[in-house]
Amino acid sequence: MWLEQILHPDFCEITRSGHVVTRAQTIEALINEETLPEILSHDFHLVRTGEMSLILYYQSCDADGSRAALRASHWRCEDQNWRMVFHQGTPAAEPGLIRAPDQPSG
Over 60-79, what HEC string results? Predict the structure, then answer.
């Protein structure tokens, strides 16, 4: 299964609502979803944290613009496969909070 391949065995997530979930809980929840909400993602930025490690920052919201969130995931490459080790979603106080590392704050 794709999820089992992409999620690192030590994966955990801090959800947008503040709950900590394990890899097994994440896989089970996604498999059992009856309807898939339309989520829009944008403003992707990658930051390399090591030769085989990076953090992906981005923003998301529901299709109607509600539930805006700032998101970050830590990815690690092992055996030529990128796997997500950690993910966190945080409600966005305002849009446009994520900037590329070389952009000045405004």
Answer: EEECCCCCCEEEEEEEEEEC
Token pair of 39 as six digits: 């989520």
CATH code assigned at 72: 3.10.450.50
CA 67 to CA 80: how far, in whole Å? Answer: 35
Domain region containing 44: 2-89
Domain total in the chain: 1
At 32-73, the pLDDT tens digits run 888 877 889 999 999 999 999 999 999 998 888 888 899 999
- 71-106 pLDDT, tens digit per residue, is 999 999 999 999 999 999 999 886 555 554 454 444
Instruction: Give domain status of residue 10, yes or no.
Output: yes
Q: State the sign of the Cα–Cα–Cα–Cα dihedral 3, 7, 11, 14.
A: negative
